[in-house]
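Problem statement: downstream parser choked on a complex file, so we are re-checking the raw output for the flavin-adenine dinucleotide run. The parser issue turned out to be on our end (a line-ending mismatch), but while we're here, posting the original submission so the record is complete.
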Amino acid sequence: MAIAVIGAGIAGLTAARRLDDTVVVFEKSRGFGGRAATRWYERPSGRVYVDHGAQYLKTENETMRRLMLEELSTADLSDIARPVWTFDADHVIREGDPEQNAAPKWSYRHGVSTLGKLLAASGRFEVRLRTRVGRLRLLADGRYALYDVEKNPLGEYEQVLIAIPSGQAAELIDNSDLPQSERIALQSALQAASYRRCLSIVLGYERDIAPRPFYALVNSDRRDPLAWLAYEHNKLGHAQRGQSVLVAQMGETYSLEQWETENEALVNEVAAHISELLGERLTDFDWADVQRWRYSQPNTLADPSQLNGVLRGLWFTGDYLIGGRVHLAAESGESVAAAIRQSRASA
Ligand SMILES: Cc1cc2nc3c(=O)[nH]c(=O)nc-3n(C[C@H](O)[C@H](O)[C@H](O)COP(=O)(O)OP(=O)(O)OC[C@H]3O[C@@H](n4cnc5c(N)ncnc54)[C@H](O)[C@@H]3O)c2cc1C
């Protein structure tokens, strides 16, 4: 049986790994892992790896524990030993929750995107990168024909698993040839989910900034423009000696208000804000970068039972069905793969 998976994020790749049919995964970008994303920067002092989407991975559920700690290579895996502390809008910094800090916060030597690379490298399925699926067409025999955004055919499949954020899934369904009433039902179920935007700012220093007892700070009262600040150089292998890297993830309101602000003004404003928070001059960064996440994490979720089963052979997975965490996306992928296997067994 031929199965197409649309999206090589952690949900899509986990599902593909758990299916034993002929599976092809289509991914619009150049890499694996989706929002479990890492960028690297060639600096004169050496390469720097920066996780600019998901900040770390948790093995809190059985799916992720088995995948990361038993099935995939652990050679480059490391626990970020330092804790996460909190700050509030008055910039009072406090020790974080000891219980939450006791659980490992995993990253890989070359960033969290290694998880996607390891899943894709398992060789159990094919991944076609730089292929954006633009349309599905339900055929008379119940199979689905797929096309890319330039209308090139991508093959015909008995089952299709849509593993992309809800907004993008809604767009894809809208452009597809599916029976009208089911299309409306799918659109309305997808609309229940919503995502927040997030501006992710990277600030790099060719010097040691002041060491801190924490790895990251999280805004506890959600009243500060800054939601999260991470010391990326505290992750093993991410930076060379003498390099420091901060990742600032901005709150929803600030991200919406400043979405169109040009990068230079944005990084200067954020660096000034961080300097004030930490009481340290951090406005003299040597390099910087900005990522605009239109779909960062879901605010509201959709109900998978209103999507899976609406049309035979058409399935949905992703964090908007379960919660905005990598381990939850993996769990969603694993459970939809089980449902696909079961539907075939009972067919
Ligand atoms: C700024 C930020 C911070 C976060 N922090 C954390 C954290 O600290 N810990 C944590 O656990 N989680 C965190 N998350 C959430 C976590 O990254 C996501 O919940 C998880 O990665 C979602 O996985 P997914 O597979 O559902 O979707 P995605 O990762 O979005 O995967 C979908 C994939 O589909 C591709 N795609 C989209 N449309 C098409 C198309 N038409 N054709 C082909 N391919 C397509 C995309 O390129 C992408 O690769 C964070 C996310 C962001 C953005």
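For whoever reads this later: The chain has nine helices and 19 strands.
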